[in-house]
Amino acid sequence: MDAQSEENLLRIEAEDVMKDVRYAVKSAELSSRLPSSSLIVYINLTTKEDERYCVELSLQGFRVVGHHYDNTERSSSESCYYETIYALLDNISPKYQRSFGEALMNKLSELQEEQRQEADNT
């Protein structure tokens, strides 16, 4: 696999992650200012608390690297890696926790309604 393809894989993963958490954050987008590579991609993220972060996605996982968009001022020693974006959000955004619970309850309600309709149709 060439370097361009490897870079695209990490970028695709970042885009998928941003789609997955849109319900629980105000915004999430790839940084257009910071360079991305096959080893690292940066995501600018605003939580529901209106806190802005620059999040690094690398092979080690996700970590906050700045408290402003396109900013990597945090040293690597003050920021730990998270295996998933959900674990990172769980740590930095109390409203994410509530949004996750609400989304889960909504999905369970939808499934219950679908099952009820299927039972009525048989």
From TrEMBL:
<dbReference type="GO" id="GO:0019207">
    <property type="term" value="F:kinase regulator activity"/>
</dbReference>
<dbReference type="GO" id="GO:0051018">
    <property type="term" value="F:protein kinase A binding"/>
</dbReference>
<dbReference type="InterPro" id="IPR023231">
    <property type="entry name" value="GSKIP_dom_sf"/>
</dbReference>
<dbReference type="GO" id="GO:0060828">
    <property type="term" value="P:regulation of canonical Wnt signaling pathway"/>
</dbReference>
<comment type="similarity">
    <text>Belongs to the GSKIP family.</text>
</comment>
<dbReference type="GO" id="GO:0005737">
    <property type="term" value="C:cytoplasm"/>
</dbReference>
<protein>
    <recommendedName>
        <fullName>GSKIP domain-containing protein</fullName>
    </recommendedName>
</protein>
<feature type="domain" description="GSKIP">
    <location>
        <begin position="11"/>
        <end position="111"/>
    </location>
</feature>
<dbReference type="InterPro" id="IPR007967">
    <property type="entry name" value="GSKIP_dom"/>
</dbReference>
<dbReference type="Pfam" id="PF05303">
    <property type="entry name" value="GSKIP_dom"/>
</dbReference>
<dbReference type="InterPro" id="IPR037395">
    <property type="entry name" value="GSKIP"/>
</dbReference>
